[in-house]
Amino acid sequence: MRRAYFRNNWIAALVVAPQLLIIFVFFYWPTSQALYWAFTFEQPWGGGNEWAGFENFRNLLTDDRYWHSIRVSIVYAAGATVLSMSAALILAVFADRQLRGYRAYRIGAIWPYAVAAPAVGLAFRFIFNPSAGVMSYVNEAFPGFWDPILNGDHALIMVMIAGAWKQVAYNFIFFLAGLQAIPRSLIEAGAMDGASILRRMRDIQLPLLAPTFFFVLVININDSFTDSFGIVDTMTAGGPARATNLMVYKIYVDGFRGLDYSGAAAQSIILMLLVIALTVVQFRYIERRVHYT
Amino acid sequence: MTQTDLPLVAAETPRNLSARKPRRPGLVENTPGLDIATHVILLLGMFMLLFPMYLVFNAATQTLQEVNAIPSRLTPGDQLWTNIQEAWVTRDFGQKFLNSLIVAVGVVTGKVVIACITAFGIVFFDHRLRMPIFWAVFITLMLPLEVRIVPTYAVAANALMPFQAILDSTGLSWLINTVSGIEVNLEWRMLNSYTGLILPLIATATGTFLYRQFFLTIPDELVEAAKMDGAGPLRFLWEILVPLSRTNIAALATIMFVFSWNQYLWPLLIITDPSYGVVAVELGKLVPDANTTGGDIPKWNIAMAGTLIVTIPPIIVVVFMQRWFVRGLINTDK
């Protein structure tokens, strides 16, 4: 623990004040507003509200559309997470062998992180367009095989692939770092015992990667709940027939298009609880990781 | 904890990840079959990641007829420059690029400075609020913009609203009104302004955490030596801590540039005046569907040219600042 301090607490107050002010205005105030709105009937253009108790939540939880949105979000989270994590894990494990071209492979797996969500959305919207781009070949051969504009399942798959593509780079970076933090001596010991490269991957590297894996899993699920807005908005705008209406997108639509502030706030609270639960899980893991290293 | 040497990186970055030379295995193993399989798998992965971008590039080089032909051609045409020019001019990308750059510089500078001074205030001063302040900042990590979007938008419409509400509910407004006759009406509209684009994004839990972790490794002796030499806290911050944090600054700045350049939801909401528009939002408006084309043939070639020009700056930053970028990402855990 530190023993040497500066004594001038006025300066301390001065340097922490800007951040505290900003988080008060843009984090804590809006969050408490969301709580307040969730328990009142809020008028879109101000002017009066009345206490609602759990009415807003009751309305939500009896609304089939909301349950549909939850289902779609879970399917999206599961699909995108499994796709991107497995792709990133395979790439990282093999890139970590550091054969010729290692640096090129590494760059090749990292750069997609820089691509903005709307750019990913727009690019994949073009690629999966049934009547232009690559899918036009498939549809030419099998008419009606692929149509995300009308078919909700196709649209969800398309959004999922775009989301997964965007996330591969992030996962790759963490998996590679996790693999390289494994002590070299363990792998060499395995080799001396006659374990082949694949055997060492399976029995030494993958088990030791478990903490990283878990951390990345939580981040991915979390991101797929909150960060999917840009992709959905540019690819499908929640359609067709709400097939890709993820929870975060529904908040936006209900709040800003439908001007249903109370409903949107109640949805925000539910999503917030979800994110907090996931973050708590993540913190418990971070504590564990300290003991690992 | 006292250390004699100063580690330049806060947390444990695996050194090999950013090392210049690949770590050659100490073992000599001759596995030509597996080596070939490794390359095949990696090349396949590269293909999956690069091919979508190639298709974007490909479409951006074709004419309107070529891009909409069924099936469309997979080899580039010669219209790249024309398409980029058309996207640039029709969507006013010059102004949008300037705006995105202003916002990125503002957000990056803001985050780096605010993270540094907050961490300074909670590490090098002995006051009871150290941990509460740290947690107050850290908890914001759990409240991503997306989940509190509607009320945050309401705040941007009047950033002083929280204070007004506090004055009103505590009866202070009434008091001021009766005593001085002034009606308290605080208003600061942030919609359609650079301030609105930048200020709400400046708070940073991860950045503060990164700096705090680093500052905790600064030995007490350094603080004592500075005090003995008569340096005050601000001088210590500016002449010792800031130069020592260069690595942190580079790492944080790289990630935050990409973060800020790619912001979509927030500018989409608070900017309605096109002269404050940013590139990411403009991309969303390039979507060539029935609503925007009015039944015309979708201009995919222009949309893809736009995607290309918006995507290139952050890619350049990530590729050339790869070392800092990876380090920052891992140390902040996002």
What does this structure look like?
The complex is a heterodimer of chains A (293) and B (334). With 293 residues, chain A is mostly helical. Chain A has helices at residues 9-38, 55-61, 64-95, 102-110, 117-127, 135-141, 152-180, 184-192, 197-208, 210-226, 229-235, 247-257, 261-292; strands at residues 40-42, 49-51. Chain A has a single domain (69-292), classed as MetI-like (MetI-like fold, Orthogonal Bundle), CATH 1.10.3720.10. In chain A, strands 1-2 form a two-stranded antiparallel ribbon. The longest helix of chain A has 32 residues, at 64-95. The radius of gyration of chain A is 24 Å and the shape is globular. The mean pLDDT of chain A is 85. Chain B is flat, with a radius of gyration of 26 Å. Chain B has helices spanning 15-18, 32-60, 64-68, 80-90, 93-123, 130-139, 149-157, 161-170, 172-180, 194-202, 205-215, 220-228, 233-244, 246-261, 265-270, 279-285, 290-293, 300-320, 322-332. Chain B is mainly α. Chain B has one domain (33-332): MetI-like (MetI-like fold, Orthogonal Bundle). Residues 1-22 of chain B have low confidence and may be disordered. The interface between A and B is large, with 110 and 117 residues.
Give the structure's gist in a few sentences.
The complex is a heterodimer of chains A (293) and B (334). With 293 residues, chain A is an all-alpha fold. Helices cover 73% and strands 2% of the residues of chain A.
User: Strand order within the widest sheet of chain A?
Assistant: 1-2
Order of helices and strands of chain A: HEEHHHHHHHHHHHH
* Assigned CATH architecture of chain A: Orthogonal Bundle
Q: What is the terminal-to-terminal distance of chain A?
A: 20 Å
The helix fraction of chain B, in percent, is: 55-70%
CATH H-level superfamily of chain B:
MetI-like
Radius of gyration of chain B: 26 Å
Structural class of chain B: mainly alpha
Radius of gyration of chain A: 24 Å
> What global shape of chain A is seen?
globular
| Individual helix count of chain B | 19
Relative strand content of chain B: under 5%
